[in-house]
Amino acid sequence: MLYRPAFEVDLARVLSPLRRGRGSLNILTDERGVVWYAANTADGPGTLALRRSGGDVEAEAWGPGAGRLLDGVPALLGANDDATGFVAHHEVIARARLRSPGLRLGATGVVWDWLVLAVLEQKVAGKEAIRSWAELCRWFGERAPGPGPDRLRVPPTPVALRSLVDWKWHRAGVDLKRRTTLLNAARVAHRLERAVELGGAEGRALLRLVPGIGVWTAAEIAQRAWGDPDAVSFGDYNIPSMVGHALLGTKLDDAGLAEILAPYAPQRQRAIRYLEAAGISRPRFGPRIALRDYRAM
User: Fold this and answer.
1) Strand runs (DSSP E) across the chain, as ranges?
2) What is the DSSP letter of 193?
3) If you count Cβ atoms within 10 Å of the first and of the last residue's Cβ in the chain, which end, N or C, has fewer?
4) How many CB atoms lie within 10 A of CB 80?
5) Where are the domains of the chain?
């Protein structure tokens, strides 16, 4: 399939929210620059390969979910994203927007895969969560259909996670609280996919009906599942500090973050993405979060 977008596409940037470094076994880029993406879809597992070809994007897919993944290419690359009405109320965001005119919020159309990752990232250091994500994908996900890299994996399905015994969760380094949340979600996973159709605050509210999924987790899922432009990850360790220092020169708490982003509603997440695209990050000072290895407990 050859997709000719009516807008500038930066594959690395639009897909960056899906990546977690070498721990992202479901999305990889090979030495030829081909992006390989493996996902669970309503039709089953599938693999999508994307490559730039001049102003076009070449897409090929394999597995039971191939057709659905190909149909979803435009949305994945941000075709449904609409920045109309966005106003930069701060000079730093205005400058960041000028430097990233092609920034778009992509949508995978999938809740489950990103729910697993978001739950694993709850209240733990990033390296710890990424390690667990990689372990679950490597040992309990299946090899991605098609000719992709050997280590490409489809994330474990709800059925696969419900079948895991305690020692396997322990092996993946997942504590009881996050495990319980994942099992709660796995029992109603098919219903949660409707959040994509609902979108916005209503979609996030549906996700939060699962015990253990709060504002932060629902926002992280929404950003990836339907490219929610207003889903702010309140409760995040880094974002209030990053936004505060970028816009005010001082650290913020969640209340301060909500106040300073209020003028950007209903596109508050877009404002944050412009800052991130500009390379603005949380100032590095103070002690690092200690890593915990639940496999040793």
Assistant:
1) 2-3, 27-29, 35-41, 44-53, 56-62, 142-143, 153-154
2) T
3) C
4) 15
5) 2-84, 112-277
Indicate the average pLDDT of the chain: 93
Residue 208 structure tokens: 């939060």
pLDDT of residue 87: 96
SS3 label, residue 182 = helix
pLDDT in tens, 139-150: 999 999 999 999
The pair of three-digit structure tokens given for residue 24, joined into one six-digit string: 């992202």
User: 54 falls in which pLDDT band (50, 70, 90)?
Assistant: confident
Average pLDDT score over residue span 264-276: 97
Q: Alpha-carbon distance 136 to 134, whole Å?
A: 6
Give CA angle at 227 (223, 228), nearest 5°.
Answer: 70
pTM: 0.93
β-pair partners for 40: 45
Tell me: the pLDDT tens digits for 187-218?
999 999 999 999 999 999 999 999 999 999 99
Q: Who contacts 41 (Cβ-Cβ below 8 Å, separation ≥6)?
A: 64, 65, 68, 69, 109, 110
| Cα separations in angstroms, 95 against 84, 115, 167, 221, 234 | 18, 33, 50, 28, 24
| Phi and psi at residue 280, to the nearest 5° | -75, 135
CATH topology of domain 112-277: Endonuclease III; domain 1 (1.10.340)
